[in-house]
Design brief:
The complex is a heterodimer of chains A (379) and B (350). Chain A has 379 residues and is of the alpha/beta class. Chain A contains 15 helices and 13 strands. Chain A has helices at 10-23, 37-45, 71-82, 105-110, 121-130, 147-160, 174-182, 185-190, 203-208, 214-219, 231-246, 266-275, 306-309, 325-329, 361-369; strands at 30-36, 56-63, 87-90, 115-117, 136-142, 165-171, 197-200, 224-226, 252-254, 276-278, 281-284, 288-291, 295-297. In chain A, the strands form 4 sheets. Chain A has a 5-stranded parallel beta sheet, with helices on both faces. A 4-stranded parallel beta sheet of chain A has the order 4-3-5-6, with helices on both faces. Chain A starts with 9 loop residues before the first helix and ends in a 10-residue tail after the last helix. With 350 residues, chain B is α+β, with helices and mostly antiparallel strands. Chain B contains 9 helices and 13 strands. Chain B has helices at 2-5, 29-43, 83-96, 117-134, 189-197, 215-223, 238-250, 265-274, 296-304, and strands at 63-71, 77-78, 81-82, 101-112, 137-146, 154-164, 180-183, 228-232, 253-257, 288-291, 313-319, 326-329, 335-337. Chain B has a 7-stranded mixed beta sheet. A 4-stranded mixed beta sheet of chain B has the order 1-6-4-5. The longest helix of chain B has 18 residues, at 117-134. The radius of gyration of chain B is 22 Å and the shape is globular. Classes of the chains: A alpha/beta (379), B alpha+beta (350). The A-B interface holds A 1, 4, 8-10, 13-14, 17, 44-51, 92, 95-96, 106, 117-119, 123, 231, 346-348, 358, 363, 366-371, 374, 376-379 and B 200-201, 253, 255, 259, 265, 268-269, 272, 275, 319, 321, 323, 325, 327, 329-337, 339, 342-345.
């Protein structure tokens, strides 16, 4: 595949592997967090850890939109489908997220809820146009990448006067989450991991640009390297991070120059700003309440806001007590440190959110890296 | 025969504009007319002509192998095939990979009220062509009609029968450390052909299903004299599911080399777009074989000499591993697990 194979070349990977090994200082540990689930998936899918020296450890961050979606939010979506009889449109990943009462959207669908998997918000608009007699709600999740399309859908619906369409907005913001990982009461309670640097988001950064990360680099003295989602991008970013750490630098570098600019996608930012505003607080699964970390629909578009339209009231629901997702999302614990991992909690029956999406730290380890837990099994 | 059965049915079956109605499954004259004018016309043979509640079949040499499979694919017609051909291939292949020569099929149809008779005729003709090409006969059948909204056009269940020659014993529990793992061709063609046709996926990739009967290929493989332990067709769940099944049945590990696994560029691109892994995608005309390492070359040559095995490859080997892990060396050089797909909500594909 053109433009793809170049970024998955095994020989180049071996070269980068040698370069990283040559740069790391003997005896020093390098703990890097890849914020995005897309990076987590690439690292696991291509076996990147096998190409890294022992001193470099990758910590999987909370950048998996499905993983950070709290139970209470899924409960709201289920309620809309089962009690209000709406057509609930959602991305496939959210279908299996465990909710209250042993339910998930998939199980609610089996109970008769009209829940439809869509690949884009425009599909939800099509459904709304085709069924004027039904109420159609789009369950909007994701970071800055999926937010602009939702904004455009709401603008389109307003322009068309599409009266039966609304959005249950659960869009969240990356910079707020990174800040929360670096300092929050929970980090103090759980203990904090000495993170030496971040691999910055790929697709999110195409929208918000590289500037928003400069604050972390300066204020917290943490190197940030923005990288694409291909495995060679990740390897190159690790090399750049090692060099920054060794050189005592902490700046924002951009490995993903083929897609990310300092300003980002200004047009998309304008649309988002036009339709959404900051929420004062939003609950994240695993991180708890994070101030100013999510978006809500502006008053001007209130009639497309499912929360207002159906007078939904958010009720937080605690995770299973044994679930370590909170600590895992912060990099304090590894998936295998959790008592539920691979036993009570598997991709078929996820208890915690990290096991739900293939981008989640637990699911990625279960699906791609389980053999590493058994010494003799590795080739 | 047609004339006799049609006695009482004033009009001939309207195969152009007619539709299935409840009377076609009701056991009356309309049902008899559907069977004689549509099914028997395309699929008729000496066994169906017996006209009894069951068919009596001649004895054969060896042990009888039976396999059954229901087909619910949506859409019913897709690039490279349709539900009719698929219903023949799917069951023929399940019998063939046991090492048996498939001879007979039975078919149960569940039709939805309102389904166009023209489409049904196309499906039945496709079944007839597929059966003829595979050298099997349809020896018994059944038709039921469900009310509109209670089916999805047509569901077809087929059962296949064949005899296992003396000395042939293939089973998923026979893989041993050191054995070679072979694949007969490119992965994911069927599943991605279906998914590219789904209405809510707006791309139009030129991907054609690999739906095909594999009994010719399996016969050639058995004739090569290679010590084959296991053959299996990686349908639902793809290669990943099939290899995990074999690993668990045999209590061994399997080590794959990603670079050796053939995948068409367009299938890889479609998978990339949808975030899918070709290892998890269904195939309907491919098989996996495990054989003694020293016979791998001989078996590979036999497979490549057959039209359905031209892109066959040795893709890995069986390893001693009590955990029964399937692992793969990625093109990148690292190793990763190849796990069963965990219940992803993918569309109906077979």
């Amino acid at each position: 595949m053109k433009y793809i194979d170049e970024f998955r070349d095994g020989e180049v990977a071996q070269g980068l592997s040698k370069a990283i090994a040559a740069e790391v200082r003997p005896g020093r540990r390098y703990n890097f967090m890849e914020f995005c689930g897309g990076h987590t998936h690439a690292i696991s899918r291509y076996g990147v850890p096998d190409l890294l020296p022992a001193g470099v450890r990758m910590i999987h961050g909370p950048g998996c939109p499905v993983c950070v979606l709290p139970i209470g939010r899924i409960d709201l979506a289920i309620k809309l489908a089962l009690e209000r009889g709406v057509i609930l449109c959602t991305y496939a990943d959210t279908l299996r997220v465990p909710a209250s009462g042993g339910l998930s959207l998939l199980r609610a669908k089996a109970q008769g809820g009209d829940i439809r998997m869509v690949y884009a918000v425009t599909d939800a608009l099509k459904i709304a146009r085709a069924h004027p007699e039904r109420e159609v709600v789009f369950f909007a999740i994701g970071f800055e990448t999926t937010t602009p399309p939702t904004a455009v859908a709401i603008k389109l619906a307003a322009a068309e006067g599409l009266a039966n369409f609304s959005v249950l907005c659960c869009h969240v913001l990356t910079p707020a989450a990174i800040m929360n990982i670096l300092e929050s009461p929970e980090v103090r309670a759980l203990g904090s991991v000495p993170i030496d640097g971040f691999i910055g988001p790929a697709h999110v950064s195409t929208v918000i640009g590289s500037r928003p990360y400069e604050f972390f680099a300066e204020e917290y003295r943490k190197p940030v390297v923005i990288a694409g989602f291909e495995p060679l991008d990740v390897m190159q970013a690790i090399l750049m991070l090692v060099r920054q750490v060794n050189g005592g630098r902490a700046v924002v570098e951009n490995e993903f120059t083929r897609a990310v600019t300092p300003e980002g996608n200004v047009k998309a930012q304008q649309w988002v700003a036009e339709v959404f505003e900051l929420r004062r607080r939003f609950e994240w699964r695993g991180l708890g309440e994070v101030p100013y970390s999510a978006l809500k629909i502006r008053e001007r578009y209130a009639r497309f806001d499912a929360e207002r339209r159906y007078r939904l009231e958010y009720r937080p629901v605690a995770d299973n007590k044994a679930c370590e997702c909170g600590a895992i999302l912060r990099g304090v614990k590894d998936p295998t440190d959790c008592k539920l991992f691979g036993l009570a909690c598997t991709p078929e029956n996820p208890m915690g959110s990290c096991m739900v999406s293939s981008e989640g730290a637990c699911a990625a380890h279960y699906t791609y890296g389980r053999h590493k837990d058994v010494e003799a099994a590795s080739p | 025969m047609t004339g006799k059965a049609n006695r009482g049915c004033a009009r001939p079956l309207d195969l152009k504009n007619g539709r299935v109605d409840m009377s076609h499954g009701g056991g009356g004259r309309a049902m008899v007319q559907l069977i004689t004018d549509l099914f028997a016309k395309s699929l008729g043979n000496e066994y169906l002509a017996q006209g009894n509640d069951g068919t009596s079949l001649p004895p054969g040499l060896g042990r009888l192998v039976v396999s059954t499979d229901s087909h619910v694919v949506s859409p019913l017609f897709f690039p490279g095939g349709d539900i009719g051909g698929l219903a023949v291939h799917g069951t023929v292949n399940d019998v063939a990979v046991m090492g048996a020569a498939p001879l007979w099929l039975t078919a149960g149809f569940i039709l939805e009220e309102g389904f166009p008779l023209a489409d049904l005729a196309r499906i039945v003709e496709s079944m007839a062509r597929a059966a003829k090409a595979a050298g099997v006969q349809l020896v018994a059948g059944d038709t039921k009609v469900v009310e509109q909204g209670k089916g999805d056009g047509v569901f077809i269940t087929t059962t296949g029968f064949g005899f296992l020659p003396e000395g042939v014993h293939l089973s998923g529990d026979l893989a041993r450390p050191g054995d070679a793992v072979l694949l007969s061709g490119t992965l994911g063609d069927h599943g991605m052909a279906i998914m590219s046709q789904r209405e809510n996926l707006g791309f139009d990739a030129p991907i054609v299903s690999d739906s095909a009967a594999l009994n010719g290929l399996t016969a050639a493989m058995l004739a090569s004299g290679a010590a084959i332990r296991v053959m299996r067709d990686p349908t639902r769940g793809g290669l990943a599911a099939t290899l995990n099944e074999i690993a668990h049945q045999s209590g061994v590990g399997i080590h794959l080399i990603e670079a050796a696994i053939p995948v068409r560029a367009e299938v890889e691109a479609a998978c990339e777009l949808l975030g899918l892994d070709p290892l998890n995608i269904a195939n309907e005309g491919k098989l996996v074989a495990v054989c003694a390492a020293e016979d791998a070359g001989k078996l590979l040559a036999a497979m490549r000499a057959h039209p359905l095995g031209q892109r066959a490859a040795v893709i890995g080997e069986v390893a001693a591993d009590a955990n029964a892990f399937v692992q793969m060396q990625t093109r990148f050089g690292g190793w990763r697990m190849v796990d069963w797909l965990s219940g992803e909500p993918l569309p109906r594909i077979c």
